[in-house]
Amino acid sequence: MWSNDHPGAKGLETLAEFAAAPGIDLGVAVIALDRTPPASIATDIERLGLDPGRLWLGVGAGFSEKPLSKMRESLAELRERVPGVRLVLAAMGPRMCALAGAAYDGAFFNWMTPAFAAAARKQVAAGAREANRETPPVFGYVRTAVGLDASARLLKEESFYRDLHDGYRKHFARLDEPEGTVGVATADGPGAQSAAGL
C-alpha cells in the first residue's frame, strides 16, 4: 500500500493508519530530502511506531541544486538512520535510474509514457549490472483524471510539473510529448483501467 508525501500531509502519517492492516508492505513516495532530511524521517518512523521491515521509503532530491550528488551522498546516512527500511529512489533521468539500479533497493517512476518507462527500466538494469547486483524492483504511478473535465485537469496538473524545477523541465524535454498527454484522462473508471492496461 502506497501513500503520497506532500508538504501539507506527511506520507508516513498516512502509512501509520494503513499499518493496522496486517500482512501488507507499506510504501511512501516520495519524500523530498531537501524538505525532510534523513534524521527527521527516522524520527517520524520511530514516533509513528512503523515497522522498518514493512517499509518501502521513496526518496527524492526535491529542489536540491545537484540532485544526483544529493542522492548519492544521502544514501549512507539513510542506511544508518533507517536500518532495515527498503530505500526507493525517485528517478527520471538516465543517471538517476542507473544510480537506483546500482545502489538503492528500488526505483520509482513518475510522469512517464509506457515507452519511456521501458527505456528507463533498462537504465536501472544497466546500473545494477555495473554494480554487479540484482536489478531492484521498479515502482511508479500513472497520473489519472476521471470525469467530464478529465483532460483539462490532467493538463493543469502536468503543466504545473513541467516547470516545477530544472529536473522536471529536462525530463519533459526528454519525453517530447504534447502537453496534457503524459497520463490518462477518461470519462469513467472502467475507461481509466483500460487505458492503463489493467
Write a brief structural summary:
With 198 residues, the protein is α/β, with parallel strands linked by helices. Helices cover 45% and strands 17% of the residues. The mean pLDDT is 94.
Could you describe the 3D structure shown?
The structure is a single chain. Helix 2 (38-47) packs parallel to helix 3 (67-81) and helix 4 (94-103) packs across helix 5 (114-130). Helices cover 45% and strands 17% of the residues. The chain has a six-stranded parallel sheet with strand order 1-2-3-4-5-6. The chain has a two-stranded parallel sheet with strand order 7-8. Strand 2, helix 2 (38-47) and strand 3 (55-60) form a beta-alpha-beta unit. It has 198 residues and is of the alpha/beta class. The longest helix is centred in the middle third of the chain and has 17 residues, at 114-130.
Strand order of the largest sheet: 1-2-3-4-5-6
Unreliably modeled segments: none
Major sheet: 6 strands, parallel
**Coarse shape:** globular
Helix share, percent: 40-55%
SSE pattern:
EHEHEHEHEHEEHHEH
Distance between the termini: 17 Å
* Average pLDDT rating: 94
- Specify the structural class: alpha/beta
Strand content: 15-25%
Number of E-state strands: 8
Number of helices: 8
**What radius of gyration results from the CA coordinates?**
17 Å
